[in-house]
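Researcher: Please generate the 3D structure of the following complex. Treat every line as part of one assembly.
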Amino acid sequence: MFSIIKSLWLVFLHLFRKKATIQYPEEKAYLAPRYRGRIVLSRDPDGEERCVACYLCAAACPVECISLDAAEREDGRRYPGFFRINFSRCIYCGFCEEACPTYAIQLIPDFEMGEYNRQNLVYEKEDLLIDGEGKYHGYNFYKVAGLALGNKAKGEAQNESPPVDPKSLMP
Amino acid sequence: MATLHIDGKTYEADPSKNLLEAALSAGLDLPYFCWHPALGSVGACRQCAVRQYRDENDKNGQIVMACMVPVTDGARISIADPEATEFRSSVVEWLMTNHPHDCPVCDEGGECHLQDMTVMTGHCSRSFRFKKRTFENQYLGPFLNHEMNRCIQCYRCVRFYNDYAGGHDLGAFASHNHVYFGRHEEGVLESEFSGNLAEVCPTGVFTDKTLKGHYSRKWDMQSAPSICNHCSVGCNTIASSRYGAVRRILNRYHHDINGYFLCDRGRYGYEHGNHPDRPSRPRLRSTKQSGLEPETTEVLAAIGSFLNEARGIAAIGSPRASLESNYALQALAGREAFSIGIAEASSAVLDALVAALREAPGGPASVRDIEHSDAVFVLGEDPSNTAPRIALALRQSVRQVSIKHAAAHRIPRWHDRAVRDLAQGRKGPLHSAWPAQTRLDEISKSAFCESPNAIAKLGFAVAQCIGEDSSSSSSADSPLQKQAKAIAADLLEAEQPLVVTGTALESEAIIDAARAVVSALAKAGKSTVRLAGIAAEANSIGAHLLQGQALESIVAKVMNGECDTLIVAENDLYRRLPHATVDALLDKLSKLIVIDCIPSSLTRHADAFLPAATIAESDGSLINCEGRGQRFFQALSPKENLHATWDWVGRIQVECQRSDTNPWPDLDTILAKMAADCPELAGIREAAPGAGFRIHNQKIPRSPRRFSGRTSILAHESVHEPKPPEDKDAAMSFSMEGSALQPPAALVSHYWSPGWNSAQALNKFQEEVGGPNRGGPPGLRLFPGGQNGRPHGSPSTESAATPDQLLAIPLYQVFGSDELSNHSAAVRERSEPLAFSLSAKTADRLGLADGDSLSLRIGEQKLTATVRLDPVMSENLIGIPVGLSDTPVTYLPLPAQANVCE
Amino acid sequence: MNPTVQTLLITLVILFTLLNFAGVLIWVERRVLALLQDRLGPNRAGPFGLFIIVADIIKIFTKEDWVPPFADRKLFILAPAIILFTVLLSFTVVPFAPGIVVLDLNVGLLFFLGLSSMGIYSTVLAGWASNSKYALIGGLRMSAQMFSYEVFMGLSLMGVVILAGSLNLTQIVEVQRGMWFIIPQFLGFLIFMIAGLAETHRMPFDLPEAESELVAGFHSEYSSMKFGMFFVGEYIGLTLISAMIVTLFFGGWLGPAWLPAPICFFLKTFAFILFFILLRAALPRPRYDQLLSWGWKYLLPLALINLIVTGAIVLMTGNPQPN
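Model: Done. Output below.
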């Protein structure tokens, strides 16, 4: 009985406390750099698309809102022919970012994506691709992969020795 | 059966197997690389280490390679032993020291045996700090992509390519840490089985190049069990699709047919469905000028009125179309006005083949039977080009003798290197009779390269020799007689003799001769003798069982005015009849309706055209050359305007008011009607479970459980997701929803098992490793054998061609002679241009050299091509490749007399 | 003025005020609750977020009005009407100020008790007619709760009746000129307040709705304005209980002379409404069996003791009874 009265009093006192409400949109909340908001596709330090269309983000997505199709450039570099995220389904869990082996897909601190028309929440590659490296600087997947590519021949990646001559029997 | 103790549990195991096979058959996970169920063990990779104990008192035991130790009764091994586990983990770590950081861009990723095994052994962190070894890649042709950095030196590729498939141009180069697998120089891999390297390679060194062009991961592909329709063997395949197009074909294990391997025509021919010019909309000639694309309903209504106004309707099916499609056409036009679309001559040969197959003791030989034969007589066939999977099996059959030899020395057959070393290249007898050089010549004991008539004569002579049992040769014998005696002796000596024949040379006499050989052998006490037949097309046998009219009689019906409207389904008449005949036929017709899935020459002349679904987009049944009825299922629900031919015909039935509703709304209905109409085909219903089949009330999913993008694939069209298409024809769903349990073998759409993402998961779908599919191999054999129905023939008495006349005979190309696969870009790249094959003598007589141009007149048709010298062809024969797409003359009634034009 | 016209006018004014007040309460409750929870509450639409009321009304009227196909259609439609009807009818006997009363019944209190019992039909029928399990459980809880608390709700007021010697609410108020009944009848007040809360199934006694257990209880299947009627009914019920407490225990319209009687009545009522909102913010929902056992084991005996003691005191002191 006393505890009821006590809690009534304590709750009543809250009337005079400072309010926690942030008056968004006039006031903005602080969002940490690793906040999981809108998804973008970033570029590597050379300005090329980082995405190599490996489909891991799509596989990791628990709501299956990512679809893409691989295409290949003349020089053998693979990229997504289309890359679609249905943000009306996205739950911003960040699994895609965790799955991404090239740091291409990143979640950024922006959640202001409201639309009156649900169809506008379907983002295509041109909506997703940004002109920078996003959160992770300096990483270039093809510099560590063994694949030869355009201006990078075999043995030119990091930590690689030059190609073996298969016609030689020398040790 | 032997008793085997693995980690304290007791299992039954087959003593003819090794410990690895026994462990896998028991359902245990044990990593391996170099061992392959079809290739045997060599003990190269050291991955399958287990600890073996002498007896129950032995506490120490020793580490052994499971693949190199035979199962013995009471053997005790431990997979979980800490030292063995660490050993396996270290082996993977060594293999991974040079493996590149490629998985995201590697086509094998997600279905990689190396990935699976790395996870299985528990290795996760690379402690090797030095540089990675690299290799240059090679261009290997349109089928395979080479990425040598990824190699883990398991030697599977060369063992398959050279030892199993008889290839010559793939080798292991360099030494120690630099071993390189490739060709001696860049170039196309010659073997027609090279595509299997994509599946044999445990990682991504060899990958499917056509898949690379439109890459999708295994977990994303919606797949269905399909049947290869590029030859008559009927290999089981898995057709996989993504975003509404077929992306690749994978081997689907069938114990009695294709086993683990497909040929490249079957693996890469699927792209005819992705041909850029593939007609995908219904068309009407009347609206062609206006440039408007008519609606489907409009075209169907027009066809309905064509048929209602027609004086008479005739229908032409096709031996490459499914049974259901042919039956639907027969039901529309009536038995009298339906043809399966092959000329009378071909039809007679096919009839002879079917009769031979019906009569064959023990039923027609399956590919597996062929592999296990120890003496083979190939009569008038070139399996390497007409039925490549049979040629691969024949390459195994000549090894039977070495396997038996090894068994006598108590070397088990899985001990691959030892068996081969002991045999020292010894081969079993394979006798081939074919007018020109074949790729099997290199393994055959004798090759008889004469005219079709001479080949038939040889066959009858062999039959006679077997009957007479006159093994002694006399000097008075003609060379043919001598050869016949040698062949007869080999066949009589064998435990399981085999005769292979087929329709390639369009000769009834050859097939009758083969039949005579088989029955002579059976009479001589060889009850194990088998007969294998090869037909021209995927459903030649099945279509023949529908008993249509010959193509010529339909032509006659049109020419005499009995019929004026013709429906042709999946058949290019220009490939079946002389141009002039077809042109005359088309002139006489008032309306032509064409249903097809490829842009054939006939489609241009159609008054109404309906686009047919390809085999991967439709459901139906095919009967292969073994008389096995097999079902194929849609891998994808095709675009709105594409339907199976039988479905189109059902819709037409409604339009021309023959029926109020579609008479066959689903596959099971048309199968039931067909079974009622043709009792012989009734068994086909048992080939696969019907649409009502369920596992715990659930359908079988077509997609793997990790299928991605479901809420996004169609989001660009509408954010409101449509319901997945419903399948009324099959017990499978167009999604990942459904039973997670293993379906019956006929409904297996992908191989996956926990921890086994690669195609090697297949182990879990077999009753034992390398054994029959769980629940038995799919399909139903329609010919039990032993049915006697046709009088025995005799060698034709017609005289051989006069010396100065040339006899043109048909030759086949594995890449080029098949109509459908010719529309696949990769296969087309491999097909060779038209060239006449003739012997050096004939060339000399005609004053020609290799590469010269020659014009021939055959009947009324003229044909010009370059000349290629064939070292083994006999004089006065000229081989003309048939079925090629790039020639002006697509039909020749071969064999026929040819005259040289000046 | 013609008495009939006057009554009609008063009725209309009361009806109008009440319905609008219920609307305003939507905003009041949200704002006050928010403030008690360190939030601001609706403050966007219009001044102080007042237009939320309009927005809510528009919203609730434009939602799809759906009757489940499995429901008993007639009763389903009837149920929300009953609650609004009974609660509004109860107000006819509430004296807002001298003369401002629709029906100055001499059995006003009984009338109120009777109508508040009628209200039970609304929820029970809603629960039953919805033909869904959550709704049915909600309806069952409501009936058990009502049966239990109605008993001592009536008993708790008997002390007041004894003291006032009348069932006429105007007279009861008049009797309190000397002393508000809160002082002699403190126990009765407590019991009546608790029972009243239970009757209006307000937090913390909202077991028939109990969204964490029953989705939305008896009105799970209701949508649009049918749901709106339950919603408004609840707020008017809250106002009614507050008004009754004021009338019976806090001297009704009585107050300082400078304050007009209706305003005084309103202020007192409003204070109780705010108190109820505070209760909602502060107290957890009791378990269902706890609710019933308190009712029967503690509140009923207390109500009886209160009645007996009051009766005894009145008999002993021999307080004069009017008429």
